[in-house]
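Page 42, continued from yesterday. The earlier attempt failed because a stray header line got pasted into the input along with the sequence. Redoing it now with the clean sequence only.
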Amino acid sequence: MDYHIKQVNLVNEGKISTVDVLIRNERIERIDPSFDVPFKTVEINGEGKHLFPGVIDDQVHFREPGLTHKANIYTEARAAVAGGVTSFMEMPNTIPASLTEELLEQKYTIAAQHALSNYSFFMGVSNDNADEAIRVSQTRKNDVCGMKIFMGSSTGNMLVDNRDVLSKVFSESELLIATHCEDEARIRARVAQYTEEFGDKLTAAYHPIIRDEEACYLSSSLATELAKKYNTRLHILHISTAEELALFRNDIPLQDKRITSEVCVHHLWFDADDYETLGNKIKCNPAIKDKRHKPALLAALLDDRLDIIATDHAPHTMEEKEKPYASAPAGLPLVQHPLLMLLEFYHQGKISLEKIAQKMAHHPAICFQIRDRGFLREGYFADAALVNLNSPYTVAQENIYYKCGWSPLLGTRFSSTVEKTFVSGHLAYDNGVFFEGVKGKRLAFDR
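This time it went through. Structure tokens are written below.
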């Protein structure tokens, strides 16, 4: 199917222009102020609406295989597309964890069969698989998004706390290394301290006190120290504190940075005051912290110390979340709503539309060197979200598409609506209706 979007406000590469867009054979064939098409297309009236490049979410947990009572690739990719997220990169801490090339490829096979969005998967690193991980980094540079190291707060066998292993991987990996940075020793000590003091009276309000700013800074500073020592291509995930911002620079172009960083939508949206009403629903690692961090994170996003925006979508069942604080799992579902959340900041005068497109699409594409995506350009794959900035949308039980069936944003009234989402030229979502006959594609990388 070919599409002619007429007189839409194109948000792309630092400017907004009113244009016609022709989508044909999976790609954007033409962008011009106005034109006629000499063959049959589906015409879409874009007047008064905005076309954004599809969001690229570099950090999600879709739970397949092994944890599919929480989520799976089909359900979560579908939810992503409903929110204008056209590509995802999924983390390796499933059951079994993606610690071998064979297990990694099994995920790609599942996604090829079931994902409505485009996809890629991280190769996991543990204390025991460094040789295998490094080999994958050397042989699969153009079809694997990166290596993932949990330098703290891991489950199962994925915590990497062996300094020799860290040094080996940082010095030999030929792929981008993405890290979860929280100091495990400090966290364990504080868990013991607060458990002894408060016992079963601990609630989610203690989460940012136990997993505090120091835990984040100790680990992030270690990661940057190793990266500088070995000239590693390092990407630190979900920065949550003002203190960590000193580790990053904004005086060189993104494509020249060896150390990049990400902020997640929930660390911009929520703060520690929200534990009173949401409790374990917003328990996540690293923790949502004191409100002083939100303006600092946003400022760093705007001035390019923080490079991209992601969700760290991490669903759990409500039954799991309703357990006592100490046993409730960390993580919250967010992949359906990140664009709406940032557009709400736009309506509040906090960020421009151009900056949203940059941080959610352009910069992830540059950071990971994704081929032919992340921009609305002639010849690029047609990954795009058509947005009505003046059509309110309320998160309700019936329009939450996550398998877990809940959202911490339930009842939130957004000022904007994602009306349509194109994935590689296929209209995958249209005002609450999914078209699932065409699946997403495996992301390719130019490295």
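Notes: The chain has a mean pLDDT of 97.
Reminder to self: strip header lines before submitting.
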